[in-house]
Amino acid sequence: MLFDTHCHLDVSRFPEGADAVLKRARAAGVRAVVDVGVGGNERSLAAVELARQRSDVLASVGIDPHEAGSCDSERWNLVESLAVEPEVVAIGETGLDYFYHHSPQALQRQAFARQIALARSTRKPLIIHTRQAAVDTIEILTAERAEDVGGVFHCFTADTALARAALNLGFMVSFSGILTFDSDACLAEAARFVPNDQLVVETDSPYLSPVPVRKLRPCEPAFVAHTATYLAKLRGTPFDEFCALTTANACRLFRVALDKFECE
Ligand code: NI
Q1: CB contact at 8 A, 91 and 119
Q2: Fewer C-beta within 10 Å: the chain N or C terminus?
């Protein structure tokens, strides 16, 4: 049993609909997913609606760093009103991206701090996106006391130093398909470093299909099984044990009971 802790079930990328995609996920052993609805727009609404309809889907809402500079008050209002819904189990993805620079860094930092405050007021964990912004990310999480709610560093691509800082703040670390095709030794080292009780996996679909389905587009939640297989082997953990521990971690992270997913 696997848990895809981060996917974007955007209908524009999955024209056959979420039900078909999730049926294939279930056949691959994936029992639960978090649909990350970023934007404060129809995507955020759709994620919450899907989570209302399906017991194997949980939702997250937020404003990603790329959109931090262009988000108006209407979109913020929608994120903040959806955040209190019971189907919404996390805030994000939010954070800092100094690689793409789609938004000015100062506005990214503001939007990040605002979402940490939202996570604290709703008592929900954060989904963190950070790229080439490790120092500022840790500094803001610390200053805004994100430790009180915790969360996950999603799609982790950095080194052991950042993993250690995330773990010290009580955050989990999530690995995606990037691990299977990025030859960076530092990333592999980080993937071995994270302790068993703070480790989760994800697809970040529709992006980043893992090896050996790298050429298949879009990436979909079923493919998390490939990343799990790779990471279990890298860590020397039997596959079944790896699935059980990462799924238990995901349930603890999102504060849901495992039996919520077992009945269907
Ligand atoms: Ni994402």
Answers
A1: yes
A2: C
CATH number for the domain including 200? 3.20.20.140
CA of 156 to the centre of ligand 1 (A): 11
Tell how far the Cα of 207 is from the centroid of ligand 1, in angstroms: 8
Domain that holds residue 88: 2-262
Contacts of 154 (CB under 8 A, 6+ apart): 5, 6, 92, 93, 127, 128, 129, 174, 176, 202, 204
What is the tens place of the pLDDT at every residue in 171-228? 999 999 999 998 899 999 999 999 999 999 999 999 999 999 999 999 999 999 999 9
**127 CA to centre of ligand 1 in angstroms:** 9
Please report which helix (H) or strand (E) contains residue 32, including its range.
Answer: strand 30-38
Q: Average pLDDT, stretch 59-86?
A: 96
Query: Do residues 190 and 158 lie in contact, with contact meaning Cβ atoms separated by under 8 Å?
Result: yes
Q: Looking at the 3D structure of the chain, how many domains does it have?
A: 1
